[in-house]
């Protein structure tokens, strides 16, 4: 059987499974559609939430980010997990007790204000839409790479699949499909990692292998990695970061963003009891951590393997001849995700930290060919050349290297891992199914959050409060269908903001939704005006800070400052600003609330009631 | 059994528990893994230092323990103050 057929079989089987589950778990009521009837066991829900949470970014991109960033990329590991502590203690149990369907539901009731609810709905839709485009394009890439179809065709197939089970099953169908998707993606991620860890360290558990001895050299694997990357002019893999303030704020932004993302929060409405909401957070993190303990090992080992491939006799010896390169490198070159450019014409591949020489040289060539500013480009090359020639006592210059010749896109590490480690073809088929499971499960959760905001928060609360349950279910299905069409269209024509998931979605969720929800529970004094001013202040400052560096509404060329550390306020990057936005939100809400009148008595009673678990069972059937 | 019908006592106990848990949460992630990493540099583990381990694995383990501990303690507090869901 060819690799293509094997991939088709694995992807086809996994899809048949999802369809089967979707038909079995059709939703008959709005409660089933929005919150799976509120009857999902915490362990099952934890597994589904883990699949919901782990997106194409966790599955495909994270290990690559860690491989490139080393210690500095720990931000993603801590940031995307630590938020569950905040959810378990500060939000989930109380919102479950509140017992309605959506996040704006709570904002609307607690702050007795349609304006506050409207801000929440807009935040929810913008954050979730940004996020869902990434999933659709991720699925498109996986389809096109493994099933050899056009990227756009792949995206359309993904849309049809999600359409089928999400529209039919709502949260109920999505939840049980996600359980299956979790299992598929976990197996797909773990198996290649186990083989690679065995090969490099003899330890079958990748998470432990990361801290054990490198079989070939006899030194710990991280020590070995530090050695080879510094010999190639890079910073040590485990080296500390210079700007700790930014690392702290970036981690904090990811954590509160995680806790404030609506598609994560609504998962906690699906369990029967308040106590189950707490347990769900714990189980979710257990299931997420199975992948997150493996990811840093995959990152470190993939980087070591890649360097080993390019320098088969060690980094001080002659590097790999281009004609001798392995098949996987050639395959990925076809996709453009690996690029080779023989700068010194020696027919070999050099991959090292060239102080920007290679990029400057390419820019000069382009300027010469297309009539750009040749003088400036020449100056850049001279500057980079000087830095390059001093690096490591001139070792690179002496060896006749003329710049880095191999560009490897971070995203291919996980997908190419089985090929790099020369694993059997069925493992590659499994990776294809796993990548699609990660993208589709997250897309479905996001689409549900978007459609419930439209049908429940916009239509039922504002336009037609007397709609019947059956009517609302119809509307929910139609909104879901529209959301999928819009997401697909945006996936086919990605706008500038599509690539800014971390800045935009986490910034909005962290700076506007998380503080509002938390204050709504932990303070009886925050009133409607305070919440509205706080949310707007947090949202606007965060967006402005992002736009100033990344372009207004992400339109290229409209940024006021270059997006580099020397221009950032106190060295805080736009990605890290969500935490500051949240602080501003808290401060403004407190000042405004305490200088205006306290919320009415029935609101204070509502706060009392969400704080006490008793009586949660009936609340779901409001 | 302390104060069976004391909602504010229940809430105070909850907030105390949350504060304690979040101090550990912050200490392990922002502390050991980032700000205090140089202090732990002397403690070696698998070819690197303890701070690196906390940043890439240790803190996630602590997060899991904290959530389960919190859920377990809160279930007991729910019963103690008579606010559990039968």
UniProtKB/TrEMBL annotation, chain B:
The keyword Nuclease does not apply. Keywords: Membrane, Transmembrane, Transmembrane helix. Residues 9-84 form the Sodium symporter small subunit domain. The chain crosses the membrane at residues 17-40, 52-72. Signal peptide: none annotated. The keyword Membrane applies. Pfam families: DUF4212. InterPro entries: Na_symporter_ssu. NCBIfam families: Na_symport_sm (TIGR03647). This is DUF4212 domain-containing protein. It comes from Psychrobacter halodurans.
């Amino acid at each position: 059987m060819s690799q293509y057929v094997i991939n088709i079989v694995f992807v086809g089987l996994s899809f048949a499974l999802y369809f089967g589950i979707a038909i079995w778990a059709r939703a008959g009521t709005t409660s089933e559609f929005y919150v799976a009837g509120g009857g999902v066991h915490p362990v099952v829900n934890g597994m589904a939430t883990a699949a919901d949470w782990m997106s194409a970014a966790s599955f495909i991109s994270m290990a690559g980010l860690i491989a490139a960033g080393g210690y500095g990329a720990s931000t993603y590991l801590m940031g995307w997990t630590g938020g569950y502590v905040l959810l378990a203690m500060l939000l989930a149990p109380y919102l479950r007790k509140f017992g309605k369907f959506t996040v704006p539901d709570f904002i609307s009731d607690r702050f007795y204000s349609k304006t506050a609810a409207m801000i929440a709905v807009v935040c929810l839709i913008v954050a979730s839409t940004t996020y869902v485009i990434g999933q659709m394009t991720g699925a498109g890439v996986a389809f096109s790479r493994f099933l050899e179809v056009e990227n756009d065709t792949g995206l359309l197939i993904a849309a049809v699949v999600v359409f089928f089970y999400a529209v039919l099953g709502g949260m109920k169908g999505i939840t049980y499909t996600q359980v299956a998707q979790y299992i598929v993606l976990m197996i797909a991620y773990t198996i290649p990692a186990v083989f690679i860890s065995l090969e490099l360290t003899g330890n079958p558990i990748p998470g432990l292998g990361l801290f054990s001895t490198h079989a070939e050299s006899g030194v710990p694997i991280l020590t070995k990695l530090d050695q080879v990357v510094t010999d190639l002019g890079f910073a040590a893999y485990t080296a500390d970061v210079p700007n700790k303030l930014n690392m702290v704020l970036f981690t904090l932004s990811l954590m509160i963003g995680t806790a404030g993302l609506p598609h994560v929060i609504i998962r906690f409405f699906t369990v029967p009891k308040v106590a189950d909401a707490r347990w769900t957070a714990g189980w979710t993190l257990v299931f997420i951590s199975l992948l997150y303990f493996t990811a840093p090992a995959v990152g470190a080992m993939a980087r070591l393997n890649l360097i080993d491939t390019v320098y088969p006799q060690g980094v001080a010896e002659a590097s790999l001849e281009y004609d001798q390169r392995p098949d996987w490198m050639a395959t990925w070159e076809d996709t453009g995700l690996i690029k080779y450019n023989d700068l010194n014409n020696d027919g070999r591949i050099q991959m090292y930290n060239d102080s920007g020489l290679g990029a400057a040289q390419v820019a000069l060539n382009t300027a010469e060919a297309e009539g750009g500013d040749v003088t400036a480009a020449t100056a850049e090359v001279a500057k980079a050349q000087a830095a390059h020639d001093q690096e490591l006592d001139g070792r690179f210059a002496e060896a006749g290297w003329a710049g880095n010749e191999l560009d490897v896109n971070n995203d291919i590490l996980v997908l190419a891992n089985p090929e790099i480690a020369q694993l059997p073809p069925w493992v590659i088929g499994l990776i294809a199914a796993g990548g699609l499971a990660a993208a589709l499960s997250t897309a479905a959760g996001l689409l549900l959050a978007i459609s419930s905001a439209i049908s429940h928060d916009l239509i039922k609360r504002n336009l037609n409060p007397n709609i019947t349950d059956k009517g609302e279910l119809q509307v929910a299905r139609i909104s879901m269908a529209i959301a999928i069409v819009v997401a697909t269209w945006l996936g086919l024509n990605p706008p500038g903001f599509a690539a800014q998931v971390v800045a935009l979605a986490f910034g909005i969720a962290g700076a506007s939704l998380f503080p509002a929800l938390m204050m709504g529970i932990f303070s009886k004094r925050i009133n409607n005006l305070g919440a509205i001013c706080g949310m707007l202040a947090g949202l606007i400052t965060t967006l402005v800070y992002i736009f100033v560096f990344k372009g207004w509404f992400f339109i290229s060329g409209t940024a006021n400052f270059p997006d580099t550390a020397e221009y950032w306020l106190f060295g805080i990057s736009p990605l890290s600003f969500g935490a500051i936005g949240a602080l501003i939100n808290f401060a403004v809400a407190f000042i405004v609330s305490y200088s205006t009148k306290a919320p009415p008595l029935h609101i204070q009673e509502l706060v009392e009631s969400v704080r006490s678990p008793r009586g949660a069972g009936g609340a779901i059937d409001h | 059994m302390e104060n069976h019908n004391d909602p504010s006592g229940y809430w105070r106990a909850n907030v105390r528990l949350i504060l304690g848990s979040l101090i550990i949460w912050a200490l392990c992630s922002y502390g050991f893994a980032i700000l205090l990493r140089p202090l732990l540099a002397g403690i070696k583990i698998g070819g690197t230092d303890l701070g690196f381990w906390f940043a890439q694995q240790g803190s996630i383990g602590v997060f899991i323990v904290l959530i389960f501990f919190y859920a377990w303690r809160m279930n007991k507090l729910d019963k103690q103050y008579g606010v559990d869901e039968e």
